[in-house]
Specification:
The structure holds 2 protein chains of 2 kinds. Chain A is mostly helical. Chain A is built from 14 helices and no strands. The two termini of chain A are about 30 Å apart. Helices cover about 70% and strands about 0% of the residues of chain B. Chain B is globular, with a radius of gyration of 24 Å. The chains are: A mainly alpha, B mainly alpha.
């Protein structure tokens, strides 16, 4: 191990400590507020509750339809992640393994749609869905289907982009051998490349899930009382007279828990995917 | 990478077909639709039957960039606010991410714990991350003011109003975004071969020199993409201001995305909103092209 001058550990502890405090304080506030009784959050902020209670974690389900929003968000996030992976895997495989006319155009299109503002797609999609509803009777607004398709606007380019990078790291000799053994392109993808790139697929899926789980702009315009997702539903804890901050924070913790755990478990693969795909 | 394996010429296109169909549905059609909308007088009278909206030529654009008029002035203002917000947030996120990634390179006990902890703000759903800041900055007696008073710095200001709102916006965005910079820069640092550092040390380079002469230049490709991505995310940010301030975003913190959203959905002027988003798109394209051109030149020069 390399030697280091004496000031370096001091600098390290100080800087990491400061960053740690900056990172943890809001998380602490979130947790401590969730454990407060309602009377406590009505007054000024206190760093310690008058008594610790799990009340908010119980009452939050009846103040707003949290369970329903949970289910709605789950349906939308799981479906859009699954759909996005399902569509992106073959496309990324084609881009990674074959040279064909239009390949560079496709790559460039995927890259550039990645960086377009969501607001750009919101207005036209809103009207297009409305028209489809009027013309065909197929409702895409106010239910989950419209939102699931809409979320492909950002999860699809990202998934393709990352997966191309991942598939590139799988040696082509492996699937060449599989094709020679007679499995065909699809067989090589399913039996050889996909298993080898499994962590990448998982990372892409969790990322698509996370973005859908946290999305606010489209959700606030395209949902109604029956299809509201968590991003919109959590706002209902604010009433005209007061905000149930303890319940907001309890709900925030509950909503965050699954994605934070999933992200921390898979972040190593996400990093590898970023270096392989995005940061090339 | 290309397989030498013979395959039907249609195979790659068959694999691409689902992606193409959905790309057309969610990207191409809305973009064409947006362009069409921006050229039409699409307001509350025509929303129900939008295809019959009268052609307006470039009127919506003229309206949006008429900086003497109320609409144009407000758009210009929100553009300036967004540029400042974006620049500050990218700079701080990058800086904090670089410091953390560098200091966590060397193994020590608890390193993985610290690393996981730093990533939590980014892993949180955006609106929950913003909600907790809203709560902390809320009112005169929120957590931030209570902490400031505890430190003897006064405190009692309303952070979500007026000029302070901009500061609140930046702090919240940095808190949520710097872990991503940390994650990406950590990946970049790990790809630098250790031999480079060993060789530099043999040559007598101190830690400061090693950082300046090896780490920074080797990080350049990662940094380039990272800055670009951070810029686009912050410039297009909607959730942070929308959740932090609800419907009434103070003009000091009125980002372009929110501004377009409000012009479209609160006043039902979709044509104008579409023109504004087209202008936003053009602006981003120019900035990205300039950025890529500049950074690739400096890379060749280096």
């Amino acid at each position: 191990m390399r030697r280091e001058p004496r000031w370096l550990p001091v600098l390290r502890v100080t800087a990491l400590g400061a960053l740690g405090v900056f990172t943890v304080l809001p998380l602490y506030v979130m947790a401590i507020t969730a454990l407060k009784p309602l009377d406590d959050v009505r007054d000024g902020f206190a760093w310690w509750p008058s008594r610790l209670t799990w009340e908010a974690f119980g009452t939050m389900w009846s103040t707003v339809d949290l369970a329903e929003y949970f289910v709605n968000s789950g349906v939308v996030a799981v479906s859009s992640a699954a759909l996005s992976v399902f569509i992106a895997v073959p496309a990324a495989y084609a881009v990674s393994r074959y040279r064909f006319p239009g390949r560079d155009l496709f790559r460039a299109a995927v890259l550039s749609t990645q960086m377009l503002p969501g607001i750009l797609f919101l207005l036209p999609l809103y009207l297009i869905y409305a028209s489809i509803g009027q013309l065909t009777g197929i409702l895409l607004q106010g239910n989950q289907v419209g939102l699931i398709i809409t979320y492909l606007t950002f999860s699809l380019p990202f998934s393709i982009w990352m997966l191309v990078g991942y598939f590139d790291t799988v040696p082509a000799e492996l699937d060449e051998a599989a094709v020679i053994d007679g499995t065909g392109a699809l067989g090589a993808l399913l039996r050889v490349v996909l298993p080898a790139a499994k962590p990448g697929v998982a990372a892409v899926a969790i990322y698509a899930f996370m973005t859908a789980w946290g999305e606010t702009l489209f959700a606030s315009v395209m949902t109604n009382a029956g299809s509201r997702t968590l991003a919109v539903g959590l706002r209902e804890y604010s009433t005209e007279s007061s905000v149930y901050w303890n319940e907001v924070m309890a709900a925030s913790l509950t909503v965050s828990f699954p994605v934070v755990v999933g992200f921390l478990l898979l972040q190593r693969y996400l990093v590898r995917g970023l270096t392989a795909g995005a940061l090339r | 990478m290309t397989t030498s394996v013979p395959c039907g010429r249609s195979v790659p296109y068959l694999l691409l077909a689902p992606a193409l169909v959905f790309e057309i549905l969610v990207h191409l059609l809305p973009m064409l639709g947006g362009l069409w909308m921006s050229l039409h007088e699409l307001n509350q009278f025509f929303v129900r039957d939008w295809t019959s909206a009268p052609f307006a030529g470039l009127d919506n654009y003229r309206f949006a960039v008429d900086f003497d008029g109320a609409v144009g002035a407000e758009l210009l203002r929100s553009f300036a606010v967004t540029a400042a917000f974006s620049a500050l947030t990218v700079a701080f996120s990058f800086g904090l991410g670089l410091v953390a990634a560098t200091l966590l390179q060397r193994p020590f006990r608890g390193r993985f714990l610290v690393r996981g902890l730093f990533l939590v703000p980014y892993a949180l759903p955006v609106y929950t991350a913003v909600l907790v800041w809203k709560f902390m900055l809320d009112r005169g007696d929120g957590a931030v003011n209570s902490a400031l008073r505890g430190l003897g710095w006064g405190g009692g200001e309303f952070w979500l109003l007026g000029q302070n709102a901009f500061l609140s916006l930046v702090v919240t965005a940095v808190w949520r975004l710097w872990p991503f910079a940390f994650l990406a820069l950590m990946a970049g640092l790990q790809s630098i071969p250790a031999e480079l550092y060993d060789a530099a040390e043999v040559d007598g380079a101190g830690p400061g020199q090693r950082f300046r002469l090896i780490t920074l230049p080797m990080l350049r490709p990662v940094a380039r993409v990272l800055v670009l991505v951070l810029f686009l995310w912050t410039f297009n940010d909607f959730t942070v201001p929308y959740v932090l301030f609800d419907q009434s975003v103070p003009s000091a913190a009125n980002l372009v995305s929110v501004h377009v959203y409000q012009s479209s959905f609160l006043t039902w002027n979709f044509g104008l909103g579409a023109a504004m988003s087209t202008l936003l798109l053009l602006f981003l394209l120019v900035v990205v092209a300039l950025f890529l051109a500049l950074t690739s030149r400096s890379r060749r020069a280096a």
